[in-house]
């Protein structure tokens, strides 16, 4: 809530920062004060970067990734495997897979997950674009790299049903014990998934 001790310009900055994921009102105030103290080395370059990104970064018309070029750098990379299309919920998942070097093919960003409770239906996601791309002659496999949540599972089942007649192999990420994970610290769902997706040693 605005107070008499905070001017309107600063209050606006705090209010906008508070809308960021993971930042509440208190964290936003701390961030605003930090930016003001570091005006030249941080605040002004940040303001320029925000303006530059707002004007130049856009969604890739092919896969939905964020980039300043269209098609994005991933889609434009001719060295990537054209046969495998990896479906992710959002761009952050795409970045995570790229950071891990886990996927060398192409991507399709859905833009969310099916969630009836939140009013997110098939028409709100890039499902049509996915099916169209899956029909491309080069694509032989579609990997559903979606979260192991109720919405993620619902979306995966919906997509697999719509990809049945396309003539591609539909796979999903294996679920189970994370690297370095100790069994007694894992929840029952993770242990059950690990047991179901066990493979030969």
Features:
6 strands; two-stranded antiparallel ribbon; alpha/beta; 4-stranded parallel β-sheet; 201 residues; 2 domains; Dna Topoisomerase Vi A Subunit, Chain: A, domain 2; Helicase, Ruva Protein, domain 3
Short summary:
The protein has 201 residues and is α/β, with parallel strands linked by helices. Helices cover 43% and strands 11% of the residues.
Structure explained in plain terms:
The protein is an alpha/beta fold and 201 residues long. The protein has 2 domains: 49 residues, Helicase, Ruva Protein, domain 3 (Orthogonal Bundle); 93 residues, Dna Topoisomerase Vi A Subunit, Chain: A, domain 2, CATH 3.40.1360. The chain contains 8 helices and 6 strands. The strands form 2 sheets. The chain has a 4-stranded parallel sheet with strand order 4-3-5-6. Helix 7 links the parallel strand 5 and strand 6. Helix 1 packs across helix 2. It is globular and about 65 Å long.
Please tell me the CATH architecture of the largest domain by its name: 3-Layer(aba) Sandwich
Main sheet strand line-up: 4-3-5-6
How would you sum up the global shape? globular
CATH secondary-structure class of the largest domain: Alpha Beta
